[in-house]
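Retro notes (design track)

What went well: tokenization of the new backbones is finally stable.
What didn't: we kept losing track of which sequence belonged to which structure.
Fix going forward: every design gets posted as structure first, then sequence, in one message. First example under the new rule, 439 residues:
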């Protein structure tokens, strides 16, 4: 069943990303029709839209279901806008796509083998994530927001992607942890590698060998990049679902693509200016023209999109190395703090029981690390049925119940839960004397 649901979800996101990519191209005036670039940038756009919707709902107090509905409404609004703005782009794309398939140059056997190896590494990485579900430091802590939102329906501020996972898990009726380690790896990794392939195409144009080699280097970085606690949240092998990974490998990489595209578009303008200057400088062979040609050569062979991209990659690697060296001094402290935080989050969870219309907490349900339930308070019998439904969301047995008094206003809800068949262990008053009316 999960396989069918996953396939439907992949198709849903592909269609949304594909249309969002066309909308982005219509807004920016791009004419390129490469399907990988359209999909990658479209996925980035729709995830960014959900992040905005999630933060808006977090500040306004709306539910996670409303955040999902608002996200879909925003995307469909963009689609309608696109249809009015550039409805003919779809036919042009399919025409261009078919022409590209017919005119595509034949690659060598070695290039095809290298491409098969690169694709196989990506597939094996997805299978590894689904089959073994590697848990890096603080993985459970970062997914706690998705679990909390999935259980309560509330939107948590500062975790927009976790809210997306909570909404999707509620939509397909699976736990957020199951969603992250079964459905998400193909979805997120295909987006990230598509973005990196688009960057390679932008840097090396039609040189397929160089593009494949660049993607191969990215694969090695993603697989073996966890060399420091600083990189925990950005290493795709551990945290492909995190907001930090989306920011680094999704948003910043897409922004870099547009920067390179902007630099590339400026070249024809410079060439026209150079031609005008060449005509103004006089006949061929003069000293003035030679100096101009030297200047033109420097501008066009050094300052171009490929070299700028390579320089940015080199700077990024150098910057990462500096951070790695500096971060070694605080790794032990960071890992100890992360482990302590994870232990605290796993050891005890507390949920307030606030009956509808009450406006205040009438009880508290504590879930221990071993799954045992502790309940304090509860209120009168008017809240009994609602308290029973609240408790059974977390378990079918209460190991210990602490009552705040012996009157009906304190024991009524407890008695209703007992009558409805809830398995209750020890019952105490808050002064720790055993409650005699338990049986």
């Amino acid at each position: 069943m999960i396989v069918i649901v996953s396939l439907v979800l992949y198709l849903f996101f592909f269609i949304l990303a594909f249309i969002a990519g066309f909308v982005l191209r219509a807004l920016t005036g791009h004419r390129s029709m490469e399907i990988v670039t359209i999909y990658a940038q479209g996925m980035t756009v729709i995830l960014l839209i959900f992040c905005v919707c999630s933060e808006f709902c977090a500040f306004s107090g709306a539910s996670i279901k409303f955040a999902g509905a608002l996200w879909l409404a925003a995307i469909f609004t963009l689609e309608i806008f696109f249809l009015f703005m550039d409805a003919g782009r779809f036919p042009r794309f399919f025409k261009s796509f078919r022409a590209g398939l017919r005119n595509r140059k034949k690659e060598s056997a070695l290039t095809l083998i290298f491409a098969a190896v690169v694709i196989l590494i990506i597939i094996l990485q997805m299978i590894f994530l689904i089959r073994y579900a590697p848990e890096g430091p603080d993985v459970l802590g970062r997914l706690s927001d998705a679990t909390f939102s999935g259980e309560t329906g509330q939107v948590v501020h500062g975790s927009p992607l976790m809210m997306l996972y909570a909404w999707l898990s509620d939509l397909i009726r699976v736990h957020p942890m199951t969603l992250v380690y079964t459905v998400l790896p193909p979805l997120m990794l295909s987006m990230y590698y598509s973005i990196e392939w688009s960057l390679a195409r932008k840097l090396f144009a039609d040189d397929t060998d160089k593009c494949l080699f660049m993607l191969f280097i990215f694969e090695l970085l993603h697989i073996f990049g966890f060399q420091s606690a600083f990189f925990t949240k950005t290493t795709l092998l551990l945290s492909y679902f995190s907001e930090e990974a989306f920011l680094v490998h999704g948003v910043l990489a897409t922004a870099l693509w547009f920067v390179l595209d902007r630099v590339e578009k400026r070249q024809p303008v410079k060439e026209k200016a150079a031609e005008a200057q060449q005509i103004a400088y006089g006949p061929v062979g003069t000293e003035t023209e030679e100096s101009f040609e030297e200047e033109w050569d420097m501008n066009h062979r050094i300052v171009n999109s490929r070299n700028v991209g390579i320089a940015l990659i080199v700077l990024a690697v150098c910057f990462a190395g500096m951070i790695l060296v500096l971060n070694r001094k605080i790794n032990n402290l960071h890992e100890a703090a992360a482990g302590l935080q994870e232990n605290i989050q796993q050891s005890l969870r507390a949920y307030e029981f606030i009956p509808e219309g009450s406006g205040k907490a009438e009880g508290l349900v504590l879930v221990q690390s071993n799954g045992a339930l502790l309940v304090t308070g509860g209120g009168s019998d008017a809240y009994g049925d609602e308290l029973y439904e609240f408790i059974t969301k977390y378990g079918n047995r209460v190991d210990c119940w602490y009552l705040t008094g012996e009157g009906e206003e304190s024991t009524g809800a407890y008695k209703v839960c007992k009558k409805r068949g809830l398995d209750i262990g020890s019952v105490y008053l808050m002064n720790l004397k055993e409650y005699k009316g338990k049986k």
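Added context from the reviewer: The first helix runs from residue 2 to 28.
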